[in-house]
Amino acid sequence: MLAAPILLAACTGGEDADPPRSSPTQAPPPITPTARPPTPVSVAPPTLPAEPPPTRGPATADCVNGWVTPPQGSPRSERALNVIRRTTGVEGPLVAVDLRYFEGPESPPSDKGYLLVVQRWYVKLYAEDDPAFRGRFLVESRRFGRGVAAVAPYGTNGFTSPDWIGFQYDSADPEPKAYPGLPGTWSGIPYDFVEGGAGLEIPGLPEEVVGCLEGT
For 189, phi and psi rounded to 5 degrees? Predict the structure, then answer.
């Protein structure tokens, strides 16, 4: 059991490319950018839970291989933090309030060998030097690359629509934008990662692993 939230030191981002996601349909975005980046203000760190979160979960029908919290400072935990740093540009140490690692199939399932097992991390964290930077992240790793698949506001729970937002790359508008409730700035077209977007019946996570976020 974790006696306290995990303090993760600064890491250097890797060279891996973000994994491609299925393109969302042209539907109203689930979230719109703010008119201008928020003015930096001093924010107190979030209130931490009285009890540390569990560190493992059993295999179930909707979390086929179970989940585990990697040891602090281990390559597996640092790998997820590296991806978040590279994607968001956040600097300084990060405090991981909850971190889970789990494996499962692609969404939708694929018979291609390199997609049979996708490594995933759920991370709830805030930046120690800038507590206003806080959020929940889903990181995915495949043989051809890894990246942040979706992000949700810090105060949300579980795997619920429309909390989780994915961003589809848009070459016509690559400028990063700030979004209400989300840490940092994000480029691309936002879409509902849980449902896949209006008219796109491909959820971001397959049913074999959605239960790995139960209790988060």
Answer: -95, 120
Q: What is the pTM of this model?
A: 0.83
DSSP letter assigned to residue 63: B
Say if residue 33 is preceded by a cis peptide, omega within 30 of 0. Answer: no
Distance (Å, whole) CA 107 – CA 54:
26
The arithmetic mean of pLDDT across residues 112-118, rounded, is 72
The residues spanned by each domain of the chain are 6-14+52-213
Strands 118-127 and 185-186: unpaired
Cβ pair 124, 96 in contact under 8 A: yes
> Whole-angstrom Cα distance, residue 141 to residue 102?
11
For the chain, percent of residues with pLDDT exceeding 90: 62
Is the pLDDT assigned to residue 10 strictly greater than 50?
A: no
